[in-house]
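Chapter summary example: a protein plus adenosine monophosphate.
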Amino acid sequence: MSYQRILVAIDLTEECHAVVARAQAIAGEGAIVRLIHVIEPMAMAFGGDVPMDLSLLQQQQFEQARARLDRFVDQYPSLTTERCHLTYGQPRQEVHRMAAEQDCELIVVGSHGRHGLALLLGSTANDILHGAPCDVLAVRLKPDN
Ligand code: AMP
């Protein structure tokens, strides 16, 4: 049985094209492939406690991410805008939420296969794997040094 509803998590880096390519390669005939990019709110990046109004910066962050996502998606004629999701939050939570909401059977994510100190800092792929509502495929990317 091949996968019919696939969600690809992308961080909008060039290496994510390999992740999308793998998802498309294993997608069954007529399968729906969706992309999701999660914007991490600035307050979260700064530890949740910032004594200033970040709303304007966040709006700019969102617009920049939208433009980057549009440019990324332009390279895939089979992917329509309504199948490319941009959300705010924590990648693990948002990817799981979207996968459940869209009844996806597979989440595809890139993995750097980190080791040493980088491993201690954690990886998004590992984070997404835990508690996922469906299968997860981690596509091996070039290891970090
Ligand atoms: P990382 O562990 O941060 O190097 O990311 C590994 C993979 O997690 C990427 O190749 C993406 O598939 C996914 N990922 C990382 N950050 C995000 C994000 N903000 N939104 C969606 N997916 C992400």
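Key point: The first strand starts at residue 3 and ends at 9.
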